[in-house]
Design goal:
By secondary structure, the protein is mainly α. Helix content is 76%, strand content 0%.
Amino acid sequence: MFMAGYTPASGLDFIQETCTGHSNLQRDIITVWTIKSIKKLKKVLILIKRGNKDIGYKGIRRLVSYISISLYPYFLISLYPYILISPFFAKAQSIEQTLSFAALEFSNKNYTASVDAYLRVYFFDKGAHGAIVYPRLAESYFELKDYAKAGYYYDLAYNVSLNDSIRTEMTLRKALCLLLDHKYLYSLQELLPMEDSLAKGQFEKKEFYIAITYFGMSDFKQSEQAFLLSARNAPDSTKTKIHDLFVKNAKIRLNPKTARILSYIFPGLGQFYAGDVKNGINSLLLTSGFAVLAVTTALNYSLIDAIASVAPWFQRYYTGGIKKAEAITVKKISTRRAKIYTEIIDTLKNIFAVPQNEDILKYKARLAYTAIYNFEFSKADSIILEIKKEFPGNIMPFVVASNYYWWLLISGYNDAETEKKYSENIDLALKLLVRTPTTGKTQKLLSNEEIYYFTVLHGYKARLLMMQKKYYKAISNFKTSIDYLELSKGKEPEYEYFYLLQGLNEYFVAHVRKDHPFYAPFIVFFPKADAQKGLDYLKIAATSKDTVLNTEGNYFLVKINMEAEVNYKEAEQHALLLINRYEKNLLYQYFYFKLLLDEKRKQEAINQLAEINKAASVNPNLAPAIVAHYKNLAQHDLKKYYMEE
């Protein structure tokens, strides 16, 4: 595949010539970066040679981004002979062509690729196309939920624009980014200096953002004024409803300090004040019971005995009740105000696109999953703790946490404590799913998301039980999972995660019945299944724009094609996609190594073993036990291969 006259060695000779006149340190830096780039280039050229052109060209695009961001301009000149190798690079020399490619990716909603392309233009043309590039970079980062970078490029777009209307829109978009990042004061700094004589729609949008900002800051008087200004062209009935909602909000006179004082005076009174009768009765009965017990003990024995044996328990539940009363009051206030805020937004939802809190949760959950896939477990753990704190009572943080602990379990951390935390998060998530379907009409009440959570959570329980060799309980949980999954049939286009679940169900049930008749009695009551349909559904999941769904779809296609279908070519395509996306993921690297061994490609497998060691070395925060786990697996497989050879 290399052009005549050019080899890695001759390429390095060329670089040495271009380095003449530089210091030794500069020359060493250039050489090291060049060797890394050549290795990456060789990988993608191998892909193209094997017919994997789509994946190969994506790898080339990533290489261009890597070079443009990481290296000095004169280093790009030193790579000239290698750039000539690919027709893609030959076509990509023109700024205009790169802009066209970026615009195409942007229109196709492939925002990661559009960012890479626009950044190349930004790097090479030094701002000459800023009026085009900056807004598109900002919009791409906004769609990728990277609000800090989006705000930065909205600022640049404002500076290069000569159109007042566009400058105003860029300011509004930057303010929205700050608002979504909960930086309320910074958002106000952008919004308040804006003039009132704005174009139609921009004034309303400005006041709308100001209203949300003030509400987030608990300045409800200012918030109401801004909401009414944003709805100045709305019917009077809308304005009246907004005013009534703020009146209702003002009637929320609960005070956490009052609840605390009342609980000091009389146990349970603070909870009654907050409207939580159940917890109030509980606190009253517990503390009263211990008080009676203390008096009885003092009368029958002595005061010292009462103080020693009962007083600590009384003090625990008495002070605990005080703290709980305050916490319940805070939660009640937040819940009531959140309900009012939602009603206000619903009143105006036909006028504006509203930033939803749920989107922030989903964004942070994706960050956690990305950290898990990159084997950045400490980072993932921090994000999970953060979203559990920010979104108490939401199922998603516990589902993410379950996946986090599962990845630890399969990566060598298979101790009792990790298993316990994995199970605890599943159980907590199941408790949060209040509505449990039984039969008949109750089933229809479940949303697609609830069906999904019920299905996966019981599936998660089953896979741990399988790992623990508790097969009967595992089959029972699988059956429960399948029962819920039946509710999703035909709903795949509505909720794309059902493609993954139905795909796995269809394939594995059919596969077990066909190739493992010994286990067939365990799934006799499972519905009929079609293996090919399962594979088709998994391929749909693997091409999703949803990061998690895409990753999981490709992962299962690697496993199925390696271990069940024995279709190594198909497995390799998905494996390469995963290791190119998540270079630090030792599991994906290991699966590719195993695939090469299975194909008897010994030398490539040995090279891949080096990649596993490299992936481990560039991740200094990775626990030694995890590194040792995957190295031992690879060494064991290699030893077995030599013994069979």
